[in-house]
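Example record

The entry below shows one chain as it appears in the dataset: sequence first, then structure tokens.
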Amino acid sequence: MRKLKKRILVVLGGNSQERKVSLETGKACINSIRKLGYHVQVFDPANKSFFKISDLKIDIIFNALHGRDGEDGNAQSYFEYLKIPYTHSGVLASMNAMDKSISKIIFKKKKILTPLHFIIKSFDYRKNILREYIKTKKLKFPIVVKPTNEGSSIGVHICKNINNLDNTTKMLFKKYDNLIFENFIAGQEVQVALMNGKAIGAIELKPKRSFYDYKAKYLKSAKTSHIIPANITKKNSAKVFKISEKAHKSLNCRGVTRCDFKFFKNKFYLLEINTQPGMTNLSLVPEIAKHNGISFDMLINNIILDASINK
């Protein structure tokens, strides 16, 4: 008998601020999954409960969600409860990677360099507290302030002085409970793609905007320059690959991930690791993979083959 192809459920959209990007990622992945010969169904948790997935006849969940509830362990916990193999990282790895306050503690323990930083909860916030932390933690302006649990540079602000920082902090605390403050690192923006724990290549980004923000990432009109391979020496390429693999392993990530670095004065500073990298036509992981001989369909198939539970 001819073996039937697996039935894949692409979960996309959701309610996060990255919904639009998730829909684009999902669309690209659906096209590829169909080309690969799998049977495809689509599910948007913005319209119905994750528990409704149990009514469907599927073999694998392809997680194409981005942002909160999609890559922070929440969706993954439903998939584990339903006992359906799913792509990308598991509950704890997703939660830890999304929450910068946790991932940075782990990076520090593993001796992975990350910018000097501190975290303030909204109920602790006072002007004098902020000034005290800046002094004791030895941060210098410009200072980056951002939510601890957003992706795609949402809510990220670079503040050049204390008044700017005070005003931005008050504004962000109206929406977020926890903020992270860290030294702004100048230098090259280098990002590394990993597949199954192994670095497959790096890209350098030169944004025309003040930094690599949401628009620089997702709009062609922002005209961000993509330099591939990254303009660093072979020795430094090997070095950043090793750090990326260590970071991926330290959080027990699975499948495809992306590590974001700043390279300054011959040092790589890890900003974060992304467990659900974008798969749009402007996304970096597919671009890096293609440059290194891995087609988009090969990349998607690899993600599917890595699907599992209890991770």
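Notes for this example: The longest strand covers residues 198-206. The chain has ten helices and twelve strands.
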